[in-house]
Design goal:
Radius of gyration: 24 Å
Number of strands: 2
Shape: globular
Number of helices: 15
Strand content: under 5%
Structural class: mainly alpha
Length: about 350
């Protein structure tokens, strides 16, 4: 969009957390880091230099956090970057921020933003890191129960040639979810009336079913489909996200995080951990609304990130041991462990 460019995430680039007896954040230089991390950082510096060269930028770097300082220093001393800065015409400020300084922000569910949910919930477009697959079967006469119907090419979010879709994407990113969904309906209704399709208007709250019924109007009209293809892909992405089981789980996460914040304020960590125990359910006892092992790990990261200093002691050790035992049992009981769980084990 005009204000934001999403680049593929660098999953391997997390700052090393200071362990007992390990190097403190202050004295970390590139030489003190593991080889894999050093290679990833050098690759990032090369990629950033190529990006800035394409944009004709002469950057001034700022860093927040120890790993960011190392990356900014590497970029400053990188020979091709020094040459580029001599000739570049545009100026820019670049701020590097260590992700570990705000883990709660990265894994929290506080965003009331439709774009964030679409990008989190829908499957990735093959070969892409930031765009998603939108199931287009609804626009065809094909009746199938196969969710990942591979006969029909998937749609996606990037619609540079459709002004209405571009405007709608901007509102997905900048408005609250409720307002963004209303914008989706407004754009869709305008497209329907422009094509003189027979529409039954209904006011009130916008539901995924209502949006679907408007989308159905385009089904057998190839000209209308062609004229509004980009817009229809974005509205279908909205419908599929709102109906997705992960979206209702998002709200559960948010409620749980708020509850945790209140509880942590009122009581000690051991009692909070004991409250979490019943939430860890093995595979054969879980329903679709229950937390998976991965969800639970995310909750734990959130909890330990927001709690600050923790008083250690026998009570805490016992509570943590209990949570570990229950979690390990749940992980071992998984029928098909996800790639992440396999990596952890």
């Amino acid at each position: 969009s005009a204000e934001l460019c999403l680049l593929p995430a660098l999953a391997v680039l997390l700052p090393p957390l200071p362990g007992p007896g390990g190097p403190g954040p202050a004295e970390v230089g590139l030489g003190a880091l593991p080889a894999e991390l050093r290679a990833a950082m050098r690759a990032l510096v090369g990629d950033l230099d190529a990006l800035f060269a394409a944009l004709g930028l002469r950057e001034e770097s700022f860093a927040v956090g120890p790993l960011s300082r190392v990356i900014a220093a590497e970029l400053a001393g990188y020979a091709p970057a020094r040459n580029r800065r001599r000739t570049a015409t545009n100026k820019a400020s670049v701020v590097f921020v260590d992700r570990a300084l705000d883990l709660a922000g990265a894994i929290g569910h506080h965003g009331d933003n439709l774009a964030e949910k679409i990008l989190s919930v829908l499957p990735k477009l093959p070969g892409h890191k930031t765009d998603v697959m939108v199931n287009m079967v609804e626009l065809t006469a094909l009746q199938t129960t196969d969710e990942a119907c591979s006969i029909i090419a998937p749609g996606c979010l990037s619609q540079p040639n459709d002004p209405a879709a571009k405007a709608l994407w901007e509102s997905f990113m900048n408005l609250k979810q409720k307002e963004a969904v209303m914008e989706a309906r407004r754009h869709l209704v305008e497209a329907v009336s422009r094509e003189n399709l027979p529409i039954k208007m209904s006011m009130g709250e916008v539901t995924p079913e209502q949006l679907s019924s408007y989308i159905q109007l385009f089904r057998n009209n190839l000209k209308a489909l062609e004229n509004h293809c980009g817009l229809l892909q974005l509205v279908l992405a909205t419908v599929q996200t709102l109906k997705h089981s992960q979206t209702s789980k998002w709200d559960n996460f948010l409620a749980f995080e708020r509850l945790l914040l209140q509880t942590i304020g009122d009581s000690e960590m051991p009692s909070v951990l004991n409250q979490l125990l019943p939430v860890i359910k093995p595979y054969n006892e879980r329903t679709k609304d229950d937390y998976t092992c991965e969800d639970f790990l995310v909750l734990l990261v959130y909890m330990y990130s927001v709690v600050g200093e923790i008083k250690s002691g026998k009570e805490l050790d016992a509570a943590e041991e209990e949570v570990k035992k229950t979690l390990v049992k749940a992980i071992c009981d998984e029928l098909e462990p996800s790639p992440l769980l396999q990596k952890i084990t």
